[in-house]
Amino acid sequence: MTTAAATGSGGSLGRIGAMLLRYLYLLRSSWPRALELMYWPTLQMVIWGFMSQFLYVNSNYVFRAFGVLLAAVMLWDVLFRGQLGLSISFLEEMWARHLGHLFVTPLRPFEWVAALLSMGLVRVVIGVVPAALLAIVLYHYSIFSLGLPLIAFFVVLLAMGWALGLAICGMILRHGMGAESLAWLAVFTLSPVSAVYYPVTILPHWLQYVAWALPSTYVFEGMRAVLFQHLFRGDYLATAALLDLILLALGSSVFFLALRGARRRGALLQMGE
Amino acid sequence: MPALAIEVKNLVKRYPNAVAVDGISFTIPRGVVTALLGGNGAGKTTTLSILLGLLLPSSGSVRVLGEDMLRHRYRVLPRLNFSSPFVDLPHRLTVRQNLLIYARLYGLRDRKERIAALAADLQIGAILDRPAGRLSAGQKTRVALAKALLNDPELLLLDELTASLDPDTGDWVRSYLEAWQARTGATILMASHNMAEVERMCSDVLMMKAGKIVDRGSPQALIDRFGRANLEEVFLHIVRKREPELEAM
Prior knowledge:
The complex is a heterodimer of chains A (273) and B (249). Helix content of chain A is 73%, strand content 0%. With 273 residues, chain A is mainly α. The longest helix of chain A is centred in the C-terminal third of the chain and has 32 residues, at 234-265. With 249 residues, chain B is an alpha/beta fold. In chain B, strands 6-7-8-3-9-10 form a six-stranded mixed beta sheet, with helices on both faces. In chain B, helix 3 packs across helix 4. Chain B is globular, with a radius of gyration of 18 Å. Classes of the chains: A mainly alpha (273), B alpha/beta (249). The interface between A and B is large, with 42 and 49 residues.
């Protein structure tokens, strides 16, 4: 009989670590890709920094809190990069036509998801932290001056990005690579209603109902409360966290149902470019 | 330990417009090398996919290494492995990185030693730090085999393993697998279109056609039963014959 090579040890954490290592190897194998992670958040921050400098002397809104636009653009990137980071790691498996190999190993779907979520976080940190540090150098504005609420905003937006990312990955599993562009485009449909750069009251009355159904809206309204009124809105945080839980449940359901559907259709061996 | 490596009962896989596997039943004892033969679309890959847990059947039961594959596949997956030239390892990672990741997924303890041993065995030591996308077909097959043997599987499923290899490399791979199987006593189930390979390696053959198992036996028994000179002629006879004629045999 075989001499079973000490299999099954390491458990879930070992397998999650293995997948995380895979994505880190991928990131390391291409420095242009790693650079691209930092490129867009930094460029956005530079543009909005100059805009803030201009508006600081021409607009009462920015004059009251110089960082209101800069903080918004960086926090928006937490949501966007969280979603994109997860989706790109997922797409790497599709592009490599690798699911057939992965799913004959002891890797459980939830372990794969845990690795994807972790990579979402890693990509956010790589993308947003350099932009935040550069904002201090260029505009003497530190997003860290938001204090402890920044951690809450970060977590809420990251979790929302994860939920969207899982739902998008589920759509790609269901509809194939034709749905790939959702990974880059879907989150931008939420940008106008998330009240990122303006108060939610600017939106038409009916659209405000949509806005208040999104965790992101509570974050950006909460951020303005901190900056303008030096007030942390715990009620906003609680509502956003609740909405995040609902979105995460929905996103996970879409993903796991799509994965089961792919097993039923035999798509795991065929899926790819 | 159960005597059967695989036990399939009334397995059906139905798609909206086709029946890929049509109520097949078979068993495969431990420690033998069995071939799954059939023309394109006969249902071989579908059957292998169900055995691996990659595909859910419409009905029927599948027991692999004594476990119900539909209910407890995570008890079985650490004990089996799979290789196919049609499913790539990630191209941008090096061979070593790929093998390290799989070693971790299988929870191996002495990963580096295990990879070094397999690299020496399969003569891939010189390409361990080359990206997997820059390998020749022969190198890819040997690397895929290294990945498939990492966990010393009790059951190895192979889908057209030597499909794109020149005769010399193909022969090397077959010899390696024969020696590995003799040493470990593992069970191998292989789908192949190479009849000479099947005659050489397999003691048992399952013939599939249109989603059904239409015959079974050792290569020599099939050759004798159909009165042909070799397995290739048997294969052509079965693939070209209409079903009622086969049932009458």
